[in-house]
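INFO  loader      accepted 1 record
INFO  loader      residues=126
INFO  predictor   begin
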Amino acid sequence: MILKEIGLLDTLHLTGIRAYGYTGLLPEEQSLGQWFEVDLTLWVDLAKPGKSDRIEDTYDYREDVKSIQELIRTARFCLIEKLVDTIAQHVLASGRVGQVRVRLTKVSPPIPDFSGKVSVEITRTL
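INFO  predictor   done
INFO  writer      dumping tokens
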């Protein structure tokens, strides 16, 4: 497989994974919570499923969506940097993803006179 030989893989993008969670530095964030959104880029080899058209031959991302939502709902970290790293390590733990990029967004951060979003993006490799 040429892609594997030169170290390149295909990418799979999952965007807009949303959940309500309790990560944040302020006491209100820890008790009242807020919405988070996650976008993933997964580096995986998609050559085999591209030929076979079989779910067994591909990376089944449904479990990632469910488990990321559960992590956001149950994690109690002070920093979003910790939450985003925890998500990346969870995805890599499957052993089927060579590299992952995770963007975690606080949809409505509690910053006075600020109506934007705050995001952290990291890339991790097995």
